[in-house]
Amino acid sequence: MAGHAFAIPDTRNRVVVEVLNGTDVNGLARVGARVLRSAGLDVVFLASGPKVDSTTVIVRRGNREAGETVLRALGQGRLKVQTDSTRHVDVTVILGPDFSGPAEIHP
Protein backbone atom coordinates (compact mmCIF):
# COMPACT_ATOMS: atom_id res chain seq x y z
CA MET A 1 0.00 0.00 0.00
CA ALA A 2 1.61 3.23 -1.14
CA GLY A 3 0.80 5.78 1.56
CA HIS A 4 -2.37 6.18 3.53
CA ALA A 5 -4.06 9.09 1.76
CA PHE A 6 -7.41 8.24 0.22
CA ALA A 7 -9.49 10.30 -2.18
CA ILE A 8 -12.08 12.62 -0.66
CA PRO A 9 -15.49 10.88 -0.89
CA ASP A 10 -18.05 12.16 -3.37
CA THR A 11 -20.47 14.36 -1.40
CA ARG A 12 -23.49 13.42 -3.55
CA ASN A 13 -23.57 9.77 -2.48
CA ARG A 14 -21.50 10.07 0.67
CA VAL A 15 -21.92 7.50 3.44
CA VAL A 16 -20.60 8.79 6.78
CA VAL A 17 -19.29 5.97 8.97
CA GLU A 18 -17.92 5.45 12.47
CA VAL A 19 -15.81 2.36 13.11
CA LEU A 20 -15.65 0.75 16.53
CA ASN A 21 -13.33 -2.06 17.60
CA GLY A 22 -15.44 -4.70 19.32
CA THR A 23 -12.44 -6.94 20.09
CA ASP A 24 -9.21 -6.93 22.12
CA VAL A 25 -7.11 -6.70 18.92
CA ASN A 26 -5.19 -3.41 18.94
CA GLY A 27 -5.55 -1.32 15.79
CA LEU A 28 -8.50 -3.21 14.32
CA ALA A 29 -10.66 -0.08 13.98
CA ARG A 30 -7.84 1.56 12.02
CA VAL A 31 -7.67 -1.43 9.66
CA GLY A 32 -11.44 -1.32 9.18
CA ALA A 33 -11.29 2.41 8.51
CA ARG A 34 -8.63 1.88 5.84
CA VAL A 35 -10.76 -0.78 4.14
CA LEU A 36 -13.78 1.51 4.11
CA ARG A 37 -11.86 4.60 3.03
CA SER A 38 -10.26 2.69 0.17
CA ALA A 39 -13.83 1.88 -0.96
CA GLY A 40 -14.69 5.60 -1.01
CA LEU A 41 -16.61 5.76 2.28
CA ASP A 42 -16.23 8.73 4.65
CA VAL A 43 -14.95 7.37 7.98
CA VAL A 44 -15.15 10.21 10.49
CA PHE A 45 -14.57 8.47 13.83
CA LEU A 46 -12.65 5.45 15.22
CA ALA A 47 -12.75 4.12 18.77
CA SER A 48 -13.03 1.08 20.97
CA GLY A 49 -16.56 -0.22 21.20
CA PRO A 50 -18.64 -2.83 22.95
CA LYS A 51 -17.42 -6.41 22.61
CA VAL A 52 -19.29 -8.35 19.93
CA ASP A 53 -19.23 -11.93 18.64
CA SER A 54 -19.22 -10.90 14.98
CA THR A 55 -18.98 -7.79 12.83
CA THR A 56 -22.14 -5.72 12.92
CA VAL A 57 -23.15 -2.89 10.58
CA ILE A 58 -25.82 -0.63 12.08
CA VAL A 59 -27.78 1.85 9.97
CA ARG A 60 -28.24 5.01 12.06
CA ARG A 61 -29.90 7.35 9.56
CA GLY A 62 -31.10 7.06 6.03
CA ASN A 63 -31.98 3.72 4.49
CA ARG A 64 -30.60 0.19 4.39
CA GLU A 65 -28.70 0.96 1.20
CA ALA A 66 -25.99 2.80 3.15
CA GLY A 67 -25.52 -0.24 5.38
CA GLU A 68 -25.45 -2.59 2.41
CA THR A 69 -22.75 -0.42 0.80
CA VAL A 70 -20.64 -0.78 3.96
CA LEU A 71 -21.24 -4.55 4.09
CA ARG A 72 -20.03 -4.91 0.50
CA ALA A 73 -16.90 -2.89 1.28
CA LEU A 74 -16.10 -5.02 4.35
CA GLY A 75 -17.03 -8.26 2.64
CA GLN A 76 -18.79 -9.52 5.75
CA GLY A 77 -20.97 -8.70 8.73
CA ARG A 78 -24.60 -8.65 9.67
CA LEU A 79 -26.87 -5.69 9.06
CA LYS A 80 -29.15 -4.06 11.64
CA VAL A 81 -31.27 -0.94 11.46
CA GLN A 82 -31.30 1.10 14.67
CA THR A 83 -32.06 4.69 13.81
CA ASP A 84 -30.51 7.21 16.17
CA SER A 85 -30.92 10.88 15.33
CA THR A 86 -28.37 11.89 17.99
CA ARG A 87 -25.51 10.30 16.03
CA HIS A 88 -23.94 12.28 13.23
CA VAL A 89 -23.18 9.22 11.11
CA ASP A 90 -25.15 7.18 8.61
CA VAL A 91 -23.65 3.86 9.71
CA THR A 92 -21.89 2.46 12.77
CA VAL A 93 -19.56 -0.50 12.23
CA ILE A 94 -18.61 -2.64 15.22
CA LEU A 95 -15.80 -4.95 14.14
CA GLY A 96 -15.84 -8.41 15.65
CA PRO A 97 -13.24 -11.18 15.92
CA ASP A 98 -14.33 -12.45 12.48
CA PHE A 99 -12.83 -9.35 10.82
CA SER A 100 -9.15 -9.18 9.96
CA GLY A 101 -9.00 -7.15 6.77
CA PRO A 102 -6.40 -7.51 4.02
CA ALA A 103 -2.88 -8.21 5.31
CA GLU A 104 -1.39 -5.36 3.27
CA ILE A 105 -3.25 -2.69 5.24
CA HIS A 106 -2.50 -3.81 8.77
CA PRO A 107 -0.62 -1.28 10.87
Structure, explained:
It is built from 2 helices and 5 strands. It has 107 residues and is of the alpha/beta class. It has one domain (16-100): Alpha-Beta Plaits, CATH 3.30.70.2390. Strands 2-1-5-3-4 form a 5-stranded mixed β-sheet, with helices on one face. It is globular and about 30 Å long. The mean pLDDT is 88.
Which descriptors apply to this entry?
Alpha-Beta Plaits; alpha/beta; five-stranded mixed beta sheet; 5 strands
Question: Could you provide a short overview of the structure?
Answer:
The chain is α/β, with parallel strands linked by helices.
Q: How helical, in percent, are the residues?
A: 10-25%
- Biggest pleated sheet: 5 strands, mixed
CATH topology-level fold name: Alpha-Beta Plaits
CATH architecture: 2-Layer Sandwich
Secondary structure topology:
Blueprint: E1 16-21, H1 28-38, E2 42-48, E3 56-59, H2 64-74, E4 78-81, E5 91-95
Parallel strand pairs: 1-2, 1-5, 3-4
Antiparallel strand pairs: 3-5
